[in-house]
Amino acid sequence: KTETLERTVDVVGSLSADESVTISPEVSGRVAEILFREGQVVEAGKPLVKLDDSIQRAELKQAEASRGLSEVEYKRANQLVNNNAGSVNTRDSALAKLRIDQAGVALAQERLAKMTLNAPFKGLIGLREVSTGEYVTPGQSLVSLVAVDPLRVEFRVPEVYLTGLAVGQSVDVTLDSVPGEHFQGTVFAVSPEVDVNGRSVKVVASLPNESGKLRPGLFARINLKLETIEDALMLQEEAL
After folding, report:
1. At what angle do helices 88-113 and 54-82 cross, to 10 degrees?
2. Which of 127, 179, 205, 232 is the most buried (most CB within 10 A)?
């Protein structure tokens, strides 16, 4: 009789974060505020750590004051030229000074912005490694941020199945840490190379994790659906 036949392969793999980053400062400074709770989910752009920015704020005010004076001097020089009472060179010098001061304000704003560290993407905050009042240096690890929805399922498939692998195939994932539950994912990348040591192909699938039950690093058992054949003619083994 005819049945719908599914060609599948069972392999093992592990879960990994879709995005993972260590939050580190670009400049030296003293930690003024820690704006997160360990283990909480934060949105992209949320401030996480604020360094003492009193000096940077003062520099910004100084730059803005200098720019304000340059604007007045340029307007005055321009008005004199329009009234044929001033030189073009004086006006051009005033304009150049104004542009330099405008750039100084932009530079001071950037320096001030670097004193606040924001989340680059939505994710789960890890355990912090600093305390308020601690002096930190560029590149020092402050806290980790991991995107856990969706997760990546990474596994290897024997090379004999290479021609049957394709983006968009379904995977059924079970985990020892969550017994009795099945999670459905979709293949989104297949390695272009075959590992010469294990004669296998690395495959990566996306696994939704809206419930937040799953975590990167978990051991996973994967059932990969290679092909679905409609109306396949099936015979009982005894008939052969």
Report:
1. 160
2. 205
